[in-house]
Amino acid sequence: MSEHTLPIEVDSLEITVVVDNETDGMSSTPEGLVLGQFDRLFRDHRHPCSSKGADCHEFRFPDACCAAHGLSLLITAKSGGTVRQVLFDTGPYEEIFQKNARNLKVDFSTINTVVLSHWHIDHSGGLLSVARECAKANNSVNIDLHPDRPDGRGTQLGQDEYVAWTADPSMEALEGFGAKLTKSSQIHTICEDMFLVSGEIPRLTSYELGVPSHVRWYEEAKTWKSDPLIMDERFLAVNVKGKGIILFTGCSHAGVINACHEAKRIFGPSVPLYMVIGGFHLAGRQVEQRIQNTVQDMAAFNPTFLAPGHCTGWRAKMALERAFPERLVPSAVGNIFKVSSDN
Questions:
Q1: Nearest C-alpha neighbor of 170 from the set 181, 185, 159
Q2: Burial track 268-286 (b if 16+ CB lie within 10 A, e otherwise)
Q3: Total Cβ atoms within 10 A of residue 255
Q4: pTM of the complete model
Q5: Chain center to CA of 89
Q6: d(Cα 334, Cα 191) in Å, to the nearest integer?
Q7: Which residues form the Metallo-beta-lactamase domain (predicted)?
Q8: For strand 82-88 and strand 305-309, is the pairing parallel, antiparallel, or unpaired?
Q9: Across the strands, what pairs with 273?
């Protein structure tokens, strides 16, 4: 881990959507940018079907990845002869992560670092599975975490009514599988300076105010307290040569526009914002009024592509598609993005 260092430009980036809320292997996408799930399945899962001709192979739906409420992206960066792989978040629970990782033929021996965007179970739910599989592959993987792990988190429904969320995996349990933990709330780079992990994201806009009903449990005091800002959320970013910043957002609880501002501040005005991929958190009655402002302010960054997924919601996706025609691409489970200085 290197602090206060800008990441190097990488030659290419491959992003595999391991977990997302949506499955869509059929929609057309920009040629060369996205390999859809069905195209990947037809290529990689070729079951014999000789009874229907020597040139026929069978497609089987159990080979397909399944959608779930959460996010996990496997990101492979190449710079010269150096290849580094980061897993950004791990989905909501172990079984869905395991199924999709198996179908995507994820090689746990090659994952260098796992970056957790923030302490919410729909992003941390597969962490133990990752640590376990990496241990089986003799890989003492590094897991990059914000140090402030809450005792618990949840949603306040009424004045005295709360819904607790499943607890995040403990740091002790992760270390029990041999994982090496990096705890940081500051900007730093990882994997030979090929990836940047943000610090806590400054809140600049007047309308990106977190999640009003979000609460945090304090075990010692045995009480819930309001926690709308979710300050432990961080983003991941990579600078691809000839393209610009690829910005990975977990949920954008800090606001996707605030995240874009911080990425541009870090990289400088000369580096364009090429793509934003991940959760924009614009779904739900408490936040949908932010959609119009978000769409308007996103125009100032002029991203080449947007891949809103996870908690973005269909209303925001429709508004973004209207404002940025032909720039929206599906962050659907099983899809593979390829960004290169050559294409």
A1: 181
A2: eeebebbbbbbbbbbbeee
A3: 29
A4: 0.96
A5: 6
A6: 25
A7: 86-156
A8: unpaired
A9: 245
Q: What are the Cα distances from residue 332, in Å, to 73, 281, 315, 324, 336? A: 11, 16, 16, 19, 9
Where do we find the tokens 């990289």?
A: 267
> Strand 214-218 relative to strand 223-226: parallel, antiparallel, unpaired?
antiparallel
The pLDDT assigned to 157 comes to: 95
CA distance 234 to 53: 52
Specify burial of residue 219 (Cβ count, 10 A radius: 0-12, 13-18, 19+): exposed
Tokens of 63: 């080979």
CATH of the domain at 191: 3.60.15.10
pLDDT digits 0-9 by tens, 63-112: 999 999 999 999 999 999 999 999 999 999 999 999 999 999 999 999 99
Question: What does the angle CA 314 – CA 106 – CA 150 come to, to the nearest 5 degrees?
Answer: 60
Q: CB neighbours of 165 closer than 8 A, spacing ≥ 6? A: 120, 121, 152, 153, 154, 155
With 0-12 / 13-18 / 19 or more C-beta atoms within 10 angstroms meaning exposed / middle / buried, residue 181 is: middle
How far apart are alpha carbons 309 and 294 in whole angstroms? 15
Number of separate domains in the chain: 1
- Label residues 37-73 b or e (16+ Cβ within 10 Å = b): bebbbeeebeeeeeeeeeeeeeeeeebbbebbbbbbb
Q: Residue 111 in contact with residue 165, Cβ under 8 Å?
A: no
Name the residue range of residue 197's domain: 2-340
CB 336 within 8 A of CB 17: yes
